[in-house]
Amino acid sequence: MPERSILFVSEADVTNTEMVLYGLNYYGIAFLTSLAVLSLFCFIAIIMPSVNALLGSGICILFFSIVGPQLLEQSTAFAEGSNISYVVYASITKIQYTGISLLLSGGELSGWLIAVTSFYLLVFLGGAYLVFTRRNYYV
Fold this sequence. Notes:
Helix content is about 75%, strand content about 5%.
């Protein structure tokens, strides 16, 4: 068992205790981003009139939240001084893919990543709650 390890986003090596703490932080944030995605799909499930509409819209949203940021990064990869990171990391799936390691590295996008994840959680869970309770009050 090695005494020190290297993290995903840094060149410096860390002790095994720091690596375990990094892993716990990483999976804790991954859990929160998974809750954010589930809140989005819960909101969609409540407002859709049928299961077919739910499946179609869910697949479309998932597809565009994966492909959109990737295409945006590719189209601006060679642009000089392009600061498109804020738009790219507005997608919760992009945050799940590479944003968590950026958040843990403490880069300039950390506040933005927290804000986007909080936005997904608060807006879509709050919206799902409001739509669900209003529909049930009038039944």
